Amino acid sequence: MIDFLQLENKLKNNEISNCYIFCGSDEKSIKNSIKTILDKTVNKDFLDLNYAQLDGLTVDINGIINACETLPFMCEKKVVTVYRANFLRDKCDKAMEKVHKDIAQYLKNLPEECILIMYYIFENDREKESYKLKKLDKLATVVKFSKLKGAMLQKKIKAIFDKKDKKIDKTELALFCSCVENNMDIIENEVEKLCCYTYGREITSRDITEIISAKNDNDIFNLVDYLSQRKPQKALDILNELIFKGESITTILRMIERQFKILFDIKLGVEGGSTKEILARELKLHPFICEKMMIQSKKFTLQQIQKSIELSLETEKILKSSSVNSKTEMELLIINTARA
Questions:
Q1: Interatomic CA distance for residues 181 and 105, integer angstroms
Q2: Which domain holds residue 75?
Q3: Are residue 6 and residue 141 in the same domain, yes or no?
Q4: Start and end of every DNA polymerase III delta subunit-like C-terminal domain (predicted)?
């Protein structure tokens, strides 16, 4: 198994495999890689005749074989993509399990003139590649598309700004990365918005905070802020919004725990005389974010933050050890935390 940065290097060197299996949470990067493969192997004038897309939720092995066995027209290669290939997950129904077993056999005899690409998207950021992929690693090039972080994310985003001939300084770039959702679809949209908003001038930190759509970390910041103001209904509204956007209860709970743990460290640091610069460096936070959290920490006593962490951990324990209504437990957590 390789990561998508290794895949990029291979594609740049025209090292193209007969079969790819992609997995990960960044569908935009997966689609970009498929496009790169298409551009390198299929003549655009005959794309419709040499490129087939199949829905992995409804396809059977005969559909895949028929698409792969059809000879390319006026090209050396044809490409077949199976998206939503959930038969590659460890847990699937009997029909999908049969597709997986059949495809594992078929890959041993895949025609040389066909490039088969199959992919599925992780349900959350903590999901790992399935055990099935490890078994298929010898029959296909398996690529995991993990979300970029730190310097690699900044480098990728900087390249997007460069492509648009827009200058962004290191400080503003770091702030942009900390504010935007780690999703290439969203990132490209936010870059476009920021470039239009600052047309003819340099990008400032204020531009970023005013323009960039709030990501889930900011939603959690606001949720905790409402708890400090003893406004549980406002916090519940944000909880419902996050659930509506597709965030799982466990992910939301983990983000709340993280927020309170950082507030605890900041509160201790401030009381110990640490400056914003010291805390930002020690906690690996952007100075702008650190300053916001220092202000938020003043709205709580150390005892309140400790109690909030305890309530969060207790909720996590309940969710893991019993079959309760997870949303109800989260609502109780918010109400009890507002009263702490």
A1: 39
A2: 2-145
A3: yes
A4: 218-336
Predicted TM-score of the model (pTM) = 0.58
CA dist., res. 118 & res. 85, Å (int): 6
CATH number for the domain harbouring residue 250: 1.20.272.10
Cβ-based burial of 293 (10 A; exposed 0-12, middle 13-18, buried ≥19): buried
What is the number of structural domains in the chain? 3
Residue count of the chain = 340
Q: Do 6 and 122 reside in the same domain of the chain?
A: yes
For residue 227 the two structure tokens come to 């708890």
- CA distance linking residue 9 with residue 90, whole number of Å: 29
CA atoms of 116 and 242, how far apart (whole Å): 36
50 and 137 assigned to the same domain = yes
Output the pLDDT for position 302: 92
Domain of 198, CATH number, reads: 1.10.8.60
Please check whether residue 334 is in contact with residue 239, taking contact to mean a CB–CB distance below 8 angstroms.
Answer: yes
**Under 8 Å between Cβ of 133 and 19:** no
Beta strands in 67-172 (DSSP E): 78-83, 114-121, 141-145
Question: Is there a single domain that holds both residue 102 and residue 161?
Answer: no
Q: Token match 């323009």: residue?
A: 211
Q: Which two tokens stand for residue 196?
A: 């239009």
Q: How far apart are CA 222 and CA 228, in angstroms?
A: 10
